[in-house]
Amino acid sequence: RYFHFCKLPGRVMGIRLLRFTSVVIIVLLLVAGALTALLPNIKDDKMPNLKREPKIQSQSAVDSFTLIMQTYNRTDLLLKLLNHYQAIPHLHKVIVVWNNIGEKIPEEMWNSLGPHPVPVVFKVQTVNRMRNRLQNFPELETKAVLMMDDDTLVSAHDLAFAFSVWQQFPEHIVGFVPRKHISTPSGVYSYGSFELQNPGFGNGDQYSMVLIGAAFFHSGYLEDFQRQPEAVYALVDETQNCDDIAMNFLVAKHTGKPSGVFVKPVDIRNLEKDTNSGYSGMWHRAEHLLQRSYCVNKLVKIYDGMPLKYSNIMISQFGFPNYANHKNKM
Amino acid sequence: RYFHFCKLPGRVMGIRLLRFTSVVIIVLLLVAGALTALLPNIKDDKMPNLKREPKIQSQSAVDSFTLIMQTYNRTDLLLKLLNHYQAIPHLHKVIVVWNNIGEKIPEEMWNSLGPHPVPVVFKVQTVNRMRNRLQNFPELETKAVLMMDDDTLVSAHDLAFAFSVWQQFPEHIVGFVPRKHISTPSGVYSYGSFELQNPGFGNGDQYSMVLIGAAFFHSGYLEDFQRQPEAVYALVDETQNCDDIAMNFLVAKHTGKPSGVFVKPVDIRNLEKDTNSGYSGMWHRAEHLLQRSYCVNKLVKIYDGMPLKYSNIMISQFGFPNYANHKNKM
């Protein structure tokens, strides 16, 4: 008979245990969650923001890069360069940013002369803008981006080496064209190249930017570029210039280090004179350099400070082009 | 009356709850422990083990380095070099490892020709051993060590630049003399320099070691060297050689990366011929290179694997010695 009674506390105990267990499970989950949240992902810390959930990549995409080339009024050169870049090792895909508004893309002709080992995608634009090449293209599957101007040829060997350097410095712009800013006593910045010297540097030279017209950088920075202040886009559109300076500001701000790593090219050429269009690049415009100094000062205002840092590191390939390039007087 | 009976299951329930709770607490602790153990310390991962609690450093010691120079039978050269290195920027202290057993140190004469800006400490040794220079000297106050052979002169400019490079690669051996190992089809390794080529490298060359006879490295590695297998010390003592190869193994094992970063020197000289002692370095011995290949293979056995990794990065100073050293054909 007491069994009857005793089932009651028994059932009560069952319920308590049930509640208790569920509480315990929740606590466990909370603790696990909290501690897991503490785990830093070293890789990601170094990577641009939005890369924290990387896209799913085809196996081939992991150890390869995407070439992004913006073209305007130089279709003959473009095809010459596309042919050259078809033979570059580790090249996953080519994205051509077609700034010839209203003009037909040469896709038919390109395909008729195939087969081509590396796929080429033509991205037709509606406005001829400098910063069109800085979109976060959905066709982009690789972490590594090689951005090239449409009048510049870099040897396959230089590109293969620079890509291996980028893999060791993935948060930097790894490229072949260094530039610098100089702060003048007036507090106004000046933009220039090797001809511009800063007495403060002592022996040797320094650079604070690596131009993206011939450089590797992380595709995450294209995503980051979409989240910049409107004033940056306005500046780039107003000048049709300085998108590369803006990218160096972005990377320097992101890393707190010099934005670029300069790789000394063995063979880089400007093919501008080879085009039949006779079109010569915007950097020939009288105001080009003045504009770029103007942009540096504008960007310092927009970002409320000068993030660019100096570096004096120049990287070459050990034992190339000749095995003795590293031998010294010893 | 049934209460009497029912207290029993009640107590049972209490005990069960007690057991259950304690189990839960243990599980919680285990989960917490496991997850906490997963937290990596990024800084430490890059630094040599024992540097996790760095020594208290004088302010001057933070941005400076200590020169460690072992000397044997070349006191005239030693004094010449000590004079040269007195003028090196960022030099905090000089530690001379005195391997001239039973011979008086030239401290009196050195002091009589003072004052000298940088303090020099003579460490008198009781046995003439190659690895004497790899002690964890109590006089060492800086994180950065510059180790130099007593017959090698590197220009102040090269040292200043290499130190700035080391500050960017503190877990590597940053130096001026690259070497490599090659694995032969037989599985036996061979040691050599630029004259030794590996078909697998394709264009250019590679290196897998940077010799510590003219290099910067983290003082923590001297502490790590004290905790190596006895067989390593036996090998170095038996050959009076290979202490630098052992250090490259140690660093490569620690970092999982290439042990060294090669900085191309502008002016490095071997002053051996300048000594009146007529003593010429051990690397002239017929067996020197054979010994070093022997050491590589021995160390692979001792460490149960080949930790050395190849690099083809060569770093030079941008714009030095001439401002155009970075200009290209463009």
From TrEMBL, chains A, B:
Coiled coil: none
One Pfam match: Glyco_transf_64
GO cellular component term of the entry, any: endoplasmic reticulum membrane
Cofactor(s) needed for function: Mn(2+)
Membrane-traversing stretches: 20-42
Record-linked InterPro entries: Glycosyltrans_GT2/GT47 (IPR052427), GT64_dom (IPR015338), Nucleotide-diphossugar_trans (IPR029044)
Record-listed E.C. numbers: 2.4.1.223
Domain Glycosyl transferase: 65-320
Any single biological process term in GO: N-acetylglucosamine metabolic process
Catalyzed reactions per annotation: 3-O-(beta-D-GlcA-(1->3)-beta-D-Gal-(1->3)-beta-D-Gal-(1->4)-beta-D-Xyl)-L-seryl-[protein] + UDP-N-acetyl-alpha-D-glucosamine = 3-O-(alpha-D-GlcNAc-(1->4)-beta-D-GlcA-(1->3)-beta-D-Gal-(1->3)-beta-D-Gal-(1->4)-beta-D-Xyl)-L-seryl-[protein] + UDP + H(+)
Annotated Gene3D superfamilies: Spore Coat Polysaccharide Biosynthesis Protein SpsA, Chain A
Protein name per the record: Exostosin-like 2
Organism: Galbula dea
Gene behind the chain: Extl2
